Amino acid sequence: MLRRSIIKLGTGITVILMWSGALASDQPAQNKSTGVQITQLTNRLRIEINGRLFTEYYFSEEAPRPYYYPVLGPDQLPMTRNWPMKSPPEEERIAKPYDHPHHRSLWFGHILVNGQDFWDEDKKKKLGQIVHKGFDKIESGADSGVIKSHDWWVAPNGDTVCTDNRTFRVYNTGNAKERLFDFEITLHAGKTDLTFGDNKDGTMAIRVAETMRLKGPKEKPGQGHIVTSTGMRDDEAWGKRADWCDYYGPVEGKTVGVAIFDHPQNPRHPTWWHVRDYGLFAANPFGRHDFEKLEDKSAGNLTVPAGKSITFRYRFYIHEGNEKEAKVAEKYQEYATKSSD
After folding, report:
1. Cα 101 vs. chain centroid, distance in angstroms?
2. pLDDT, tens digit (0-9, with 9 covering 90-100), for 114-146
3. Handedness of CA 78, 84, 89, 94 (dihedral sign)
4. What is the DSSP letter of 254?
């Protein structure tokens, strides 16, 4: 049976999506055991690579913002912390009581957007919410899969602070020892200027698995490590600027890591890295006064004029081994060279 969905994108533009049965790609159906397969469920999209789960994209209003969980790497090893989505015994032994309930696996947010908090998750605070409004494209494929969606950033009083369009593209590299995906987000100012405030708490973020931490609870040494493209390592990497940053450590006895690449054309490239010894790993182009210890608390503010937009692009490279064994620097150069073509 032919069905349709009407999506209003604003500015008088309406898109009509037509499909037969469940929401699907405009490409021929793929064999579920090969390529990238994206399946829509009630409150999330399930993303599989060659028949094996990679991640799920949660978009319902049960959380303050959309997020990806779990994120599985080589040998299906979990690359992100399970809490607050789950609380397995093996994590409780490492880190209970848990910290930072807003660190939901992999997400995008910022603590100061026109003065509103789109980062925290605290019932005692008045917080903004990033509300999923619809999908513009869900496409499976042999070589890659694509999700395009749009969201409203809603203040506690119900006002829409800004809107976004985001694209998630995951690749079937043919190598089971790695995972590769791109995240792109365009943020649109409405009738007033849109200001991202200077603060360390943001923005493109992942919370790595507990066993990958540089330091454990009560400051006990962990087995993880952090390294940037400029050679900064571990604690000294926090707040520094670099093309890329890699966080690696043991998961179930195997050394694995995740690198984030800052797109060469991103505003304020190379970005600052809000990367913590307890497992938070984020690219943040807005926290200059915190990172550089400046007196001017607005030094890192970035304002998008009314009616205009700004785009950020990142690549995630999940790998086996440390940054040298995984050739992170070479992978970044491939990304940067391709981006400048």
Report:
1. 16
2. 999 999 998 778 999 999 999 999 999 999 999
3. positive
4. E
Dihedral Cα 61, 64, 65, 70, nearest 10 deg: -90
Q: What does each C-alpha distance from 328 to 159, 162, 175, 178, 333 come to in angstroms?
A: 42, 35, 15, 11, 9
Supply the pTM of this predicted model. 0.89
Distances (CA, A) of 72 to 105, 109, 174, 239: 11, 22, 15, 27
What is the secondary structure of 160-180 as a DSSP string?
Answer: EEEEEEEEEEEE--S-TTEEE
Closest CA to 281 of 204, 179, 210, 196: 204
E strand or H helix that includes residue 94: helix 89-95
pLDDT of residue 302: 98
DSSP summary character for residue 338: H
Tokens, residue 294: 């400046």
Place of tokens 């973020």: 205
| Domains of the chain in sequence order | 34-340 (2.70.98)
Q: Is-contact 3 21, C-beta < 8 A?
A: yes
Q: Note whether 165 and 147 are within 8 A (CB).
A: no
